[in-house]
Specification:
By secondary structure, the protein is mainly beta. It is about 10% helix and about 55% strand. The chain has a ten-stranded antiparallel β-barrel with strand order 1-2-3-4-5-6-7-8-9-10.
Length: about 160
Amino acid sequence: MRVVIFILAWFCAGAAEARDLTALAWMNGCWRLEDARGQVTEVWQSPRMPAMIGYITTILNNQTTDWAQMRLETRGEDVVMLSMPKGRGPFLYYWSEFSTARTGEHARIAFDGQDRRYPQRIIYEREGDRLTATYVDWREQETVFGYTRIECADALPH
């Protein structure tokens, strides 16, 4: 019985410790995809502050058609995402799921919104030089963005 309690305590303690911005360092970098939606660029940085800063832009036919600012920050014992699409919001999402391989080659984080706005859930997964962002609506329909790492100097339009 003591062994079972010890194992459960060990797993629970590990999950609590993981709710820290340093556990999300794998998101840092500049990411891009090009498809029918246009050129979509997402950037995540960890400046010397208690937050990670991100932004996303979509350019189609030399016009910015979509953009958003994001911030991951610690609130009490939790990490939350604040999303500001096209300057609206901020909309709040709570850390709901996290996993990472010991090798650091695969990681996953999910944030859940508290109402029926789109997206209801935002999931990030990293596999090597690929980052996938999946937006899930309240009907469980997914919009997937499959990014490849780029040099950050190429992230801004010239």
